[in-house]
Design a protein that fits this description.
The protein is of the alpha/beta class. Helix content is 30%, strand content 26%. The protein has 10 helices and 17 strands.
């Protein structure tokens, strides 16, 4: 922590600095290459992920008792997940696909995909947010020498200093969800993510809202936070100048509580490993007998098993957490 005056620009809280760096003019997420140009998500790792989402969408449609269902992809990147799901949905299921993204619509995108900056209201179906909440900007707090939580302020070159004490709704959030007990402990104040998730899930008339992210829960918070940066596939220091992604893990238990205020809504937190296995993505190697009876089929099955193993691996993509938040509505009463 540096308390000296910084000559490289104005001091701001991490929330304001991240907002400008990611989504301001020439912001990191508005670049033509999109997220795929800098890091690999589950969507990019294998088409098995889109296939699993397609099966989940079909399950939601069945629970809704309809053959026409909405799929809302929040933080859609360049439409990769929606493109994959539309290619994988079972015959006879009609999908109204919505991409929610601040960047401009990419050229050549499937015309069936609607593109906009806000979540549509009143739709029935599946809302899916893969690695979206970790890029909702948040402030960072650090306990000073007396144990008082203070906002961390940052300059454009990444230099930090302690600012004023955390107060108001942010202080209440820290006290409930991520109390700082010792000098030097840090936390990302997840209140903006709670609010963003509650708004997004609340736009569904009925169905299932899913958020997928690296996450932590109360009782197992990292003592010094998780704020970091990524550029060209490498983890780097988080510098809010637009040159890198700025991200931090998500307190998904707090998001679940915020999104579950509607009557009858309920939530479940499971690992990606468990969620994908429920949807038929397990990573088991094919039987050797298949190699003798159908060598080409064996090679395909072996490749699929390798991709499934990557999606469900411990210490990797399998450690993502899925928040599944059901939104009951007319004609939809999930068990």
């Amino acid at each position: 922590m540096n308390d000296e005056t910084c000559q490289s620009g104005p001091w701001r809280g991490w929330r304001a600095a991240t907002e400008a760096a990611l989504y301001g003019p020439d912001g990191f997420y508005l670049r033509p290459e999109g997220p795929a140009g800098h890091f690999r998500t589950s969507v990019h790792a294998s088409p098995l992920f889109a296939g699993a989402v397609a099966r989940l969408l079909a399950q939601v449609a069945d629970e809704l008792g309809t053959d026409e269902v909405a799929l809302v992809d929040v933080g859609a990147g360049r439409g990769e997940l929606l493109t994959g799901v539309l290619a994988a949905v079972p015959a006879g299921l009609r999908v109204r696909a919505y991409a929610v993204e601040r960047a401009a619509r990419p050229e050549g995108l499937d015309p069936r995909i609607s593109w906009g900056a806000s979540v549509p209201s009143g739709v029935r179906g599946l809302l899916f947010a893969n690695e979206w909440l970790d890029n909702v900007p948040v402030d960072v707090a650090e306990a000073d020498e007396s144990g008082t939580p203070r906002y961390v302020e940052v300059a454009p070159d990444g230099t930090e200093r302690l600012g004023p004490p955390v107060a108001g709704a942010d202080a209440e959030w820290l006290a409930r969800w991520w109390p700082l007990r010792e000098p030097g402990e840090r936390a990302e104040i997840g209140r903006p993510r709670d609010e963003a998730w509650a708004r997004a899930a609340g736009r569904l008339a009925a169905g299932l809202a899913v958020a997928v992210d690296y996450a932590h829960v109360r009782g197992a918070r990292p003592p010094f936070g998780t704020l970091t940066g990524f550029r060209a596939g490498r983890e780097v220091e988080p510098v809010p100048d637009g040159s890198c992604d700025i991200t931090s893990h998500v307190a998904l238990d707090a998001c679940a509580a915020a999104g579950g205020t509607a009557d009858g809504a309920f939530a479940e937190l499971v690992s990606q490993r468990e969620a994908l296995r429920r949807l038929g993505v397990g990573g088991e190697r094919p039987a050797l007998d298949l190699a003798r009876s159908d060598p080409a089929g064996y090679v395909r099955a072996l490749a699929a098993a390798g991709e499934a193993a990557e999606l469900t691996a411990r210490g990797g993509l399998g450690d993502f957490t899925w928040l599944l938040q059901r939104v009951p509505g007319e004609g939809y009463c999930p068990a």
